[in-house]
Amino acid sequence: MDVDDVSAVAPGAASAPGRARPRPPAITDVASAAGVSYQTVSRVLNDHPNVARETRARVLDAVQRLGYRRNIAAAALKTRRTGVLGVVATGSNLFGPTRTLVAIEQAARARGVFVSLTTVDLQSKSEVGAAIEHLLDQGVDGIVVIASHDEAATAVLESRTTVPVVVAGRPGRDGVLAVAVDQEAGATIATRHLLGLGHRDVLHLAGPSPWVDARARAVGFRETMAAAGLAPRTLWADGWDAETGYRVGQELLSRVRRRRSVLPTAVFAANDLLALGVVHALADAGLRVPADVSVVGYDDGDGAAHFVPPLTTVAQELDELGYRCVELLLAARDGVPTSTSVSVSPRLLVRESTAAPRRHDPVLAPD
Q1: What is the pLDDT of residue 126?
Q2: What's the predicted TM-score (pTM) here?
Q3: d(CA 49, CA 185)
Q4: Across-strand partners of 146?
Q5: Angle between helices 27-34 and 38-45 (to 10 degrees)
Q6: Of the candidates 318, 287, 314, which has an alpha carbon nearest to the alpha carbon of residue 299?
Q7: How far is Cα 137 from Cα 228, in angstroms, rounded to an integer?
Q8: Across-strand partners of 329?
């Protein structure tokens, strides 16, 4: 086949072995196949409203038949936008940050933009700062930082960017764009649920204190107990995992056995995994949930409805959080006036791990 023969191959068609690969279809090929101008094709691809329904269908059919793909790099040169949002997230498997990341990616894809992800240790301010710089070098249109930890939030405050940055998971301050679940409200509804059942001796197993969510949930618990005229009891964990919850639960039960503490009638844990560990420790001591101790978790993570017993917990509505992050970031990118801080309301899911308080002190199995 000579050079002229190559040009005769239809755009996007497969070439026979040994033959030169044909060029990818261009927007002018789509226009020719649909019988319209290339400007009309552009309007259809950009979802412009002023295109007749039949014309739009004809263009989209031509796009599919030819296998046309938009040249993102060329569009970026023209619009000075890449259509890419940067996300800085943790590399861990913690439920909240991981589910937030998935929700952001899904919301971005629904809006026709892509996500460039950088995973770092959110407890390292320098790593978060370097990740932001890395994304800026890629020319992203904006950045979401899932800032569950103080160091990550500080890195955002100290960064100097030319694109909008949204902090996910932390209430807004100092004019920073932010979207967060109202963690204090979540702790409040969990604590009120236990008080409504008649509990007066409630223990809060808080998450690690450097984490924003842990402190906010502890505040919600403490203020709700104080408003009811009750003394709050709080134990601070040094991790978010079930093993930590089990260890803290064992330590609490050991103090109860030595009469250095009393067994609470209810435990509000800062996340579902801590709650799972506590339930395990109680079971090892011969105690029943909720007959002897009621337990509430936080997150409504995978499997929470299948704990034994099914766990009463607070759902964070992280899909809504991800959607709000993307909407806020795109509005800021496009110069659309909007609120700088968005709050997402959590909700309580009542299952079988909570009930009215026990009437008599149970007998604990020996260590």
Answers
A1: 84
A2: 0.76
A3: 41
A4: 168
A5: 100
A6: 314
A7: 53
A8: none
The pLDDT tens digits for 59-71 are 999 988 988 876 6
- Would you give the distance in Å from CA 85 to the centre of its chain? 15
Whole-number Å distance between alpha carbons of 198 and 338: 43
- Residue 291 DSSP class: T
Q: Which of 113, 265, 99 is nearest to 195 (CA)?
A: 265
Q: Reduced to 3 states, what is the DSSP secondary structure of residue 6?
A: helix
Contact 163, 143 (CB under 8 A): yes
Geometric angle at alpha carbon 102, from 352 and 343, rounded to 5°: 70
Residue 57 has pLDDT above 60, yes or no: yes
Distances (CA, A) of 338 to 6, 159, 244, 317, 342: 53, 22, 41, 21, 10
Q: Range with the lowest mean pLDDT among 6-15, 152-161, 190-199? A: 6-15
Whether 308 contacts 290, CB under 8 Å: no
Contacts for 148 with CB less than 8 Å, ≥ 6 apart: 90, 94, 96, 97, 122, 169, 170, 211, 212, 213
Cβ count near 286 (within 10 Å): 12
Three-state DSSP class for residue 102: helix
Q: What is the pLDDT of residues 275-286, one digit of tens each?
A: 999 999 999 999
Distance separating alpha carbons of residues 59 and 81, to the nearest angstrom:
25
Of the candidates 148, 179, 116, the residue with the CA atom closest to the CA atom of residue 329: 179
Length of the chain: 367
What is the chain's mean pLDDT, rounded? 86
Digit-coded pLDDT (tens) for 244-293: 999 999 999 999 999 888 999 999 999 999 999 999 999 999 999 999 99
In Å, what is the CA distance from 262 to each residue of 196, 235, 254, 257?
A: 21, 14, 10, 9
What does DSSP say about strands 313-315 and 347-349: parallel, antiparallel, or unpaired? antiparallel
CA atoms of 302 and 312, how far apart (whole Å): 13
Task: Check: CB of residue 289 under 8 Å from CB of residue 312.
Answer: no
Neighbours of 75 (CB within 10 A): 16
10: left (phi over 0), alpha (psi -120 to 50) or beta: beta
